[in-house]
Specification:
Blueprint lengths: L13 E7 L2 E12 L13 E13 L2 E9 L2 E4 L4 H12 L1
Antiparallel strand pairs: 1-2, 2-3, 3-4, 4-5
């Protein structure tokens, strides 16, 4: 599934992936908001549909680097990518 943020929102539960602003992402969505999901307003754990999220940035050629990982809680993330993450989370959880 390829998504470029043009109003197309994957709403079905399950795994989904795509691109946004030159970054690749992979996510797993729950059917309903869950207590360990990523909250779209605060970007903290709590009441969201996104259970897993991985954001990858291009490094060189076909090589990608993980810049943020959420798996029922933040594993790691870099502040430089916060605007991209916020937009992606709003669109996915919408």
């Amino acid at each position: 599934m390829s998504w470029k943020g043009a109003g197309v929102r994957p709403r079905a539960a399950g795994a989904c992936a795509g691109t946004v602003e030159g970054y690749r992402w992979e996510a797993y969505l729950a059917r309903e908001p869950v207590s360990y999901g990523l909250n779209p307003q605060t970007l903290y754990k709590g009441q969201g549909r996104i259970v897993r999220l991985e954001l990858l940035a291009p490094v060189a050629g076909r090589v990608w680097r993980r810049v943020a990982v959420y798996n029922r809680g933040w594993v790691f993330g870099r502040k430089a990518y916060l605007p991209v993450l916020a937009r992606l989370v709003r669109e996915l959880d919408g």
